[in-house]
């Protein structure tokens, strides 16, 4: 590839110019990263260790925690290393790997959130068919489809993006390698090759979005018809966290990729990228555990269990 022979590395956007601020950003991101590792790690351990949580809802929550860990581990460690060592560089191969894995995890997470909406729809609107529609085999197949679709989407966009000739320098105006900012470095009109892949992905994203909206319309209609206040409260306690996560994920992602060029600026792009790539993986464990009593109990039981395992 012609662009491969001329560009050997990219320069990522630096958060600060002074050494003191760079170390401050390193400390801040380290705290966020450790919080994400701890929160998602606790969810993984709680679901794996407690048989009462071996249900479809928690199986998909386990997948969400894994994807969140992958997503935040793709972007933040490199940012922290660059801040610590006062550099902006990332190798060509490293940038391509970052694009692939970020798209893989973020796409699979979106598809997994769509499946979670279906899970809540069946649980509330068709409870008598829940066991048959969401059997262990069906859950495994849906999870595999989400991960597989994420892989294909990532491979498609990574191959298309890095086949483009780049003639606008090597400075990426983002703290990680993001497709829209790499496309800005491509030669005039060369980025049109990416249009077909983009249309395909947007169609999938829009289809999932419509499915999620329709699922929640049916869910809220069913919940509001419930005669028992306790039943309504229990239904909302399992749906609202998922709805909050989906809303944060979709709103920031859509704004990042579809915002008008007229309002684009490096600082705004940076904030939006942080909101959809860093904040959800750190906040999702907190959002899901706030109203979920079963998950809270399971997490509390982990601590004496770990103490017994490691005296």
UniProtKB/TrEMBL annotation:
Q: Tell whether Membrane is among the UniProt keywords.
A: yes
**Primary residence:** membrane
Q: Enumerate the PROSITE patterns for this protein.
A: G_PROTEIN_RECEP_F1_1 (PS00237), G_PROTEIN_RECEP_F1_2 (PS50262)
Q: Does the keyword Lyase apply?
A: no
Q: How does it sit in the membrane?
A: Multi-pass membrane protein
Subcellular location(s): the record lists:
Cell membrane
Please tell me the species this chain comes from.
Answer: Aythya fuligula
Q: What does this protein do?
A: Odorant receptor.
Which GO-annotated molecular functions does the record name? G protein-coupled receptor activity; olfactory receptor activity
Which family is this sequence assigned to?
Belongs to the G-protein coupled receptor 1 family.
Return the protein name.
Olfactory receptor
Give me the Gene Ontology terms describing cellular component.
plasma membrane
Q: Which UniProt keywords apply?
A: Cell membrane, G-protein coupled receptor, Membrane, Olfaction, Receptor, Sensory transduction, Transducer, Transmembrane, Transmembrane helix
